[in-house]
Amino acid sequence: MARWKVVLILTTVLALHCSTAHAGKPAPPSFFGLVPNSHLQPRDYQRIKEANVGAARVSLFWRAIEQRDDHFDWDATDAMIGGFAARGISSLPPLFGSPEWVAGNVMAPPVGSAGQQDEWMEFVSEAVRRYGHGGTYWSTAYRFQFPGAQPMPITTWQVWNEQNGPKHFHPTPDVNRYATLLRISESAISARDPAASILTGGTVSRPTGEGGVPAWRYVRKLLKVGGPFDHVALHPYARNAHEIGSHIKKVRRVLKKRKKTKAQVWITEVGWSSGPSAASPKLSTTAKGQAKRLAKTYKKLKRKRKKWRIGGVYWYTWRDFGGGVCEWCPHAGLVTPQLGSKPAFTAYQRIAG
Question: DSSP character for 83?
Fold first, then answer.
């Protein structure tokens, strides 16, 4: 064989090798997350699996679980966490929502007294004892509910939700109070499972309402006061993938400056409505527009996954519903109320497959 042919072959092989090496490993299934509606039926789980969803954000709403002191009702969360695990879908649980007997307002963080803090730590400890590594649920009820299914213990715990906005942190966002909540949560979680990770509540990029603090400023203040966490959760509601990317980069710059470069950024809510909303025009579009924005966002975050250290991306929400949460939310689902596929479902399925 002529020398130039040998050189050409070797050069081509080397180029292919380098190309493969730079491509890196594909995103794990857990990268493709979903914030499901409550009251899921067997058909919901089947369709969610068809969409290639790998992780679900299942809220552990304290007020619903412990309506009376020391009376824990895990039935609803057992059904969802177990239902997802039986289908190979992991769960990420936000822990939030104070019971009435603990605090007058459901969104008041339980840090106002030693008694409130003790009650919160007990709740968190019980949640980890039930669903974490070696959790009692996996060795008891799960075996009977889903015979033969593999357990999927929870390894990352999210503390509260949208704490940088007034809607979810009563009476107003307060970094010091949230740092206290993180400290007592970390203490309760690590006592049960030292290997577990702590994820901040989803920080809204630009929260509305009096006292709201942009996510990147909030994270900077949180790091300054010493709130313990492993990873940051972000809710980058924006017009498009480009704006979302700019929000992530702002958070990453803060983490780099504070020498917390190993921390991941988890997008625990992102989405758009497939119907018009005069109150939220930047988050509203058409059914095709919703699918287009979803595809561009997931493709971009998949491509930037390593550079930006993205831990996962959770679409809000699964099924269109009646409303009551926000102006644009009723049509944010991947499917219709009757579980019919919207264009966004097909786009998600293709990207996550």
Answer: H
Tens of pLDDT, residue by residue over 210-231, are: 999 999 999 999 999 999 999 9
Per-residue pLDDT at 24: 62
Stated as kind and residue range, the H or E segment containing 72 is none
Q: Structure pTM?
A: 0.93
pLDDT tens-digit profile of 247-291?
Answer: 999 999 999 999 999 999 999 999 999 998 888 999 999 999 999
Give the residue carrying structure tokens 């989405």.
271
Q: How do strand 60-61 and strand 94-96 relate by DSSP bridges?
A: parallel
Contact 268, 234 (CB under 8 A): yes
- What secondary structure does DSSP assign to 84-139, as a single string? HHTTT-EEE-EEE---TTT-SSTTS-S-SSHHHHHHHHHHHHHHHHHHSTT-HHHH
Q: How far is residue 32 from each of residues 21, 57, 158, measured CA to CA in Å?
A: 23, 11, 17
Close Cβ partners of 25 (under 8 Å, ≥ 6 residues apart) = none
| 63 phi-psi bin (left φ>0, alpha ψ -120 to 50, beta other) | alpha
CATH 3.30.450.20 describes domain 26-352: no
